[in-house]
């Protein structure tokens, strides 16, 4: 599941960087490695929200519940980060512009994948996980949160 989300994000970022005439040199690779955290963070939040949701909901309802809780905070967080680094777009330095372009692309593509693609993948793969659990344990087993919220707080 991890590779199905993080790999396409970075493939898209590298593709758009080459479209913007950014060469794949050490500077662009370092900024890409630094930006990996953003794409992992977005995907991790959505996945955790999905898995830790109420166990009595079906996968579709879990996706809706997760997106209702996380979509706006993720969009606002990415927009504030873009606004924070927007001043870098006007600095006449190759390294600074590559940094801005990479961060911008990772944020936009990462939020899109986390809010659109990942819920679709989670919705489609959870029934297979439940089928596998029923084969292993011999009865219908729903994917549940392993922690209780009361225990954590």
Automatic annotation (TrEMBL):
One Gene Ontology cellular component annotation held by this UniProt entry: cytoplasmic vesicle membrane
InterPro entries according to UniProt: Patched_domain-protein
Presence of keyword Protein biosynthesis: no
Tagged with keyword Transmembrane: yes
Superkingdom of the organism of origin: Eukaryota
Signal peptide feature range: none
Key words, A-Z: Membrane, Transmembrane, Transmembrane helix
TM stretches of this protein: 6-22, 29-50, 70-91, 103-122
GO BP terms, alphabetized: endocytosis; molting cycle, collagen and cuticulin-based cuticle
Protein name: Uncharacterized protein
């Amino acid at each position: 599941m991890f590779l199905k989300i993080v790999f396409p994000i970075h493939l898209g970022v590298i593709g758009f960087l080459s479209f913007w005439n950014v060469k794949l040199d050490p500077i662009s690779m370092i900024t890409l490695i630094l930006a990996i955290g953003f794409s992992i963070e977005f995907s991790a939040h959505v996945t955790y929200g999905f898995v830790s949701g109420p166990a009595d909901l079906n996968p579709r309802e879990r996706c809706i519940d997760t997106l209702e809780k996380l979509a706006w905070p993720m969009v606002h967080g990415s927009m504030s980060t873009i606004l924070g680094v927007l001043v870098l777009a006007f600095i006449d330095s190759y390294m600074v512009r590559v940094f801005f372009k990479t961060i911008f692309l990772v944020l936009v593509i990462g939020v899109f994948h986390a809010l659109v693609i990942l819920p679709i993948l989670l919705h489609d793969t959870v029934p297979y996980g439940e089928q596998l659990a029923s084969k292993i344990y011999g009865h219908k087993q729903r994917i549940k949160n392993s922690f209780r919220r009361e225990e954590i707080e």
